[in-house]
Amino acid sequence: MELSVHVEGNINLTWPLWKRHVSDTEQLGYAGLFRCDHFTVEYPDYPNVLELIVSLAYAADHSERVHIGSLVAPLSFRDPVLLAFQAAALDDLSGGRMILGVSTGWMDREHTMFGYDLGDLPTRFARLEEGLEVITRLFRSAEPVTYSGRFYQLRDAMLRPLPQRFGGPKLLLGGVGVRRTLPLVARYADIWNAFHITADEFQERSARLDQMVEEAGRQARDVKRSLLNPVVCGRNDAELERSAAYFRTVIPNGKDMPIENLLAALRQELGAIIGSPQQVVEQMRAYADAGVEEIMMQCYDVTDFDGVHLVAREVLPHVS
User: Fold this and answer.
1) How big is the CA angle at 247 (ends 246 and 250), to the nearest 5 degrees?
2) How far apart are CA 198 and CA 264, in angstroms?
3) For residues 263, 241, 308 and 173, what is the CA-based torsion angle, rounded to 10 degrees?
4) 201-204 — which CB contacts under 8 Å span 24+ positions?
5) pLDDT in the model for residue 250
6) In order along the chain (320 residues), what is the average pLDDT of each group of 10 residues?
7) Residue 224, strand partner residues
């Protein structure tokens, strides 16, 4: 199983911090480095935000081994044509290491703040489906593409240059919904990413996805299975407290909550992987047994390099 790092780029991520994440992820042996894509946060604050595409361009040019990607870019404010053009360029720049993760969008605050129409759930999924059709046609067609939809139109359109990697960057879709999300994964995605669920829940959803992929005329192994979950790891109580410190600022009543209660809340609400290095290894192996091929370790505290290094030293060698 691969282990990667996911950085929350909308929570006071700066260039010096991002540069160190790129360097550390490459040198410590992680498989990949991912970024979320937001303008701000959902609660009343205005943190520093590092723009997704520009930051991935830096990562592509300052690494040689790790795969890089968006986890995930909302088509509610990202135009799929421009996003496809940018992702193809990033894939070429990185030598075929770009993963393009896209989504419906979800955060009301950022859409209201900057004047984007988020829409209701049916609208979001209809827009996502059309955007996936546009992106995949542009990536995979050697001939000009024409498409007429509710949200997007193409007329004899073609990306130039075509992506150097046949078919373009790998496409990732995240989510666990059986009615809307998984059918889109089955039709379009190279990678399925679940988040904040248990190993048993993952195994159940993965089995449902197998059926849908085969019904779509593909083979189950065509879709890689990945997981995005926070990891709180420490060799003692002090290190666990440090690793969980960020969550005290966002969990209701978290500031004065006993550490045991805080960790229990993180397990319940975020599916967090928590414990000593050995306990974290055991939990990750349970996910591997459930079919997870890659875990993206979700780093809310973008300054917690001690935690990234600890997992690299004491967890990564036992799960990769």
Assistant:
1) 105
2) 14
3) 30
4) 201/176, 202/227, 202/287, 202/290, 202/291, 202/292, 203/290, 203/291
5) 86
6) 97 97 98 97 93 98 98 98 98 97 97 98 98 96 95 95 90 96 98 95 97 97 97 96 93 90 93 97 98 97 97 97
7) 191
> Does some domain include residue 261?
no
Judged on CB neighbours under 10 Å (0-12, 13-18, 19+), 201 is middle
Please check whether residue 257 lies inside any domain of the structure: no
| Contact by Cβ (8 Å): 308, 5 | yes
CB-CB contact of 102 with 132 (8 Å): yes
| Residues in CB range of 106: below 8 A, 6 or more apart | 74, 118, 124
Strand partners, 73: 102
Q: How far apart are CA 89 and CA 277, in angstroms?
A: 38
Would you state the pLDDT for residue 251?
87
Residue 66 lies in a domain: yes
Total domain count, the chain? 1
Evaluate whether residue 242 is within a structural domain.
no
Q: What's at 217, amino acid-wise?
A: G
Which residues span the domain enclosing 117?
A: 2-233+273-319
Cα(5)–Cα(197) distance, integer angstroms: 18
Dihedral (CA of 150, 109, 56, 185) sign: negative
Please give the Cα distance from 78 to 173 (Å, whole number): 15
Residue 17, domain CATH? 3.20.20.30
